[in-house]
Every structure is written in structure tokens, then in C-alpha cells.
Fold this protein.
Amino acid sequence: MPVVEIENLTKDFLVGFWKKHPVRALDNLSLQVSRGEIFGFLGPNGAGKSTTLKILMHLLHPSSGEARILGEPVDSVKMRRKIGFLPENPYFYDYLTPEELLTYVGRLFGLRQPDLSKKVDLLLETVGLTDARRIQLRKFSKGMVQRIGIAQAIINDPEIVFLDEPMSGLDPLGRMEVRRIITALKSKGVTVFFSSHILPDVEALCDRVAILNKGKLQEVGALEEILKVRIEGHEVILAGWTDETLKTMQETCEEVRPMGDRLHIRISNPEQMEAVLKSVFEQKLELISMNPIRPSLEEYFFQEIKDSQNSRRGQNS
Ligand SMILES: Nc1ncnc2c1ncn2[C@@H]1O[C@H](COP(=O)(O)OP(=O)(O)OP(=O)(O)O)[C@@H](O)[C@H]1O
Ligand SMILES: [Mg+2]
């Protein structure tokens, strides 16, 4: 049974001075998330990601359509106790320390001492803020705020966590930390639904993704399916190469680039692959890596969005 069900959700905001002009933020969105998945919700700015999450959190009412979490309508109090939420750009009262904030949130969920203190210790450890536990949040970096945000979202041991842009504004180390936390949640069986426009993070984490653009679902599925696994060849990296290697490779392969002590080679057919492997054995070269070349999510994303803009232009003319 899916744990998140979204059916034909449409959301129009009324904008302008007289609130008369409808702006469609979500257009007939339907999707389902299964238990235990890491589900990535992708889309450029203004795609409708936060709007969807706010509807799921019962912070906004849809204009039409329906959503259910754990089989219950989004206004169910019983269901709410089993989920966690990290809003986009979270703000917490910043004279509190992480310890105080988590103790406060824990009490809201009915935790009492001594369990509460144990839970707070464990969470601070999980998100790597044990050393900062008594520092006021106003002194926190963006990465630290994001981590305390995740801690408060999982204090009730939720079955599903909803994270709105958990990596936004984080440096590579901060992003890695958040990735580690998300992977750890999955290994405990927690379903993670997160929105992002940081594609490598999505590529590294998600079982399935949904791509949203201008409120419309563009595609949903495993990343490999979406990218259509168009393997366009392989990139081979060798070390220990000599002038002889360079000569053989240039004679047989498409693209050969020496970079320091490494040789980067692009091959696109089995004959070239055979020639490269033969040299590796005969010339005792070190095979550093051999990776299939496929379009990245970035390339896909740009292409899709360009196509949809072009087709719209076509319709208008
Ligand atoms: N309260 C509101 N009033 C009017 N329009 C809104 C409101 N909230 C969102 N919108 C509009 O709805 C659309 C979707 O916004 P949303 O915040 O859901 O996008 P997003 O995918 O989360 O973008 P981002 O990546 O920038 O966070 C945008 O065009 C936005 O301007
Ligand atoms: Mg958003």
C-alpha cells in the first residue's frame, strides 16, 4: 500500500491587489510513494514543490483533488503523530539552544523524562550537534540550522519524513552530512520524501523521483528509467601510461586525453573496448575506472524544460 497518495491535486492562488487573478501553482498532480522509499521531488524554482508539501502538511488547502498519508486524510491528528516535517528555510526561536528546542518539541509529542533526555542526546548525536548542544541557535551556520531542523523532524520516530529542500544553502560537507542522515533513516525503514533542485544529491539518494515543472508532473519513476539508460559509451581512466600507450589509443579510440599521470579515453564500441583492455594487460597499465557514459539528470532537466518551452512557443505562434 502506498504511504503517500496524491490524486489530481490542483492549487490556484489568487494574486493581485483585488486577489482576482488565479495563478495555477499545481495542475492535476497525481503520484504515490511506497513505504521505505527515498522519494525525490524535483523541479526548478516555482515548480510547485513547496505548495505540494504544504498541502500534505495541511498548511494549505488544495483547490481540488485529494491527498492521503498512511491511508488517512491530511487533516488526521492520529496520522500527524507518525510523520515529521522540515519546512523550507526553517526558522526556530533563535535564543534557544539545540537541547532546549528538542526538549520543547519532544514534550509536544508527549515524551517525558528520562526518555526525553535520552532521545535528545541520541538526536544530537545523529545530526552531529552534540558539541553545539548549549550554543544558541542564533550563532548557528545555515548547515547547523538545517541539521537541527532535521532533528526536530524525526524526534517522534516518524514513519515518513517530509523534507523541503534539506540541502539548500549547504556546502559540500554539509550536504554530505544530510545525505548520510537520510540514508540512515532509510536503513531504519523510514520513508523519506524530499524536494530538491540539487541534482547530484537526488541522483545519489533516491529510489524514485518525480519531476515537476510549472505545477505539472513531467515524469515519475526510477532515475535510470527516466534517463532512459542511453549508454553512449564508456570512459576509461588508466594510469602508468607511456608514449606507446598514447599512440595505440589514439589509433583506435575516439577521444584520448592525457591528464597528468592519468589517461582519459572515450570508447564507443566493443572493438575499442577490446583494444583498450588488451593494452592494459600487455603494457601492465593500471585500470583506475571504467564508467558508462549516460546523460546526467542535469542534461535531462535542461532538455525537458527547453522542449516544453519550445512546444509552448509553437502553440502560441
Ligand atoms: N502564497 C502564495 N500566493 C501566491 N502565489 C504563490 C503562493 N505560494 C506559492 N505561489 C506560487 O506558486 C508557484 C509554486 O510555488 P512553490 O513555492 O510551490 O514552488 P517551489 O517548487 O517550492 O519553488 P522553489 O524551488 O523556489 O522553492 C509559484 O509560481 C509561486 O509564485
Ligand atoms: Mg520551495
